[in-house]
Amino acid sequence: MEMPIIASWAKDRIVLYRSRVEALAHDKRPQRAPFVSIPLSPSYRGDERICVVVNREHLKAAMSAPGVRRVDYDLNQGQLVVSGPKTRYALKDVLTGNSNTLPYARRGVRNVLEDWAKAQRKRKVSKAMSVGDRRAAKIQRDIEVAQRKLAKIHASRPVNPLCVDRRQNGGIYFRDSEARWAKGKGIRKALAKLTGKWIRRNSRPDSWKEFYEQVARILSISEVFPPVKHDRVCNRKGGPEVVGYLKHLPKHIAGQSKPWRSLNWDDKFDGARMQKSRLEYLEEMQAKRIVEDQIKNLEELKRAAKGEECQVHQ
Q: Distance of alpha carbon 279 from its chain centroid, rounded?
């Protein structure tokens, strides 16, 4: 039979037995939940039982204080009050509040309990595993931590803005895009001469067939494919008008777009900042190699742990 926890009732508070609350706070079971539910009603009322829910660690710290003599529940404030001659702790009920704060409080409690239940399920699965599998699972968790750390390292090689030409076959994207933009200058000029008269008149070509034949000769291709023609591009969701299509013809047909530049290098080039960027890049690359070596070593340890387990089973 469940022992009563309520000592007496009053108009604005409920007096609880200190020993019963202390037993709930210092529960020795290893699977104890992070919250303590203290019943405030001697019997069920329908499908709901009146109770107060407080954080277990907060309740344990309050009950461990010297001189604690009384435990009350304040009905007006919704607090569990642990008091003594020189001490007083007010523990907020996590399930009380107004219409604005109560949904968030309950959601926070549910998230904490879900994390706790997930950890309990993992612990149960881990106990059923063998020693080698348990060691391999621990190493796998360390590998995942190292992989998340590696994903946060963004090592971008600094590029001297005065050297925009590609100097190696597998160059940086910045250099490649700058080289493509410089190489396509003749095509852009020829297309601008072709479309200039229609853009000035705010009109469209008389014959689109002849227009695309001229564009194909400029691009040195046999024909312009339908997906990049005006009837397909302008009818897309958020597509340009015909004049806008002609104005940005190199982008729509030739796939040429101006490379992004964070600032005007001609006016704001700073040699000291460039040197600092190089040093930061070397530091990032060193940190990246360290984490990669760590992941490699952990993977070798994981394979070794699985190999030992296989030998034990054989």
A: 29
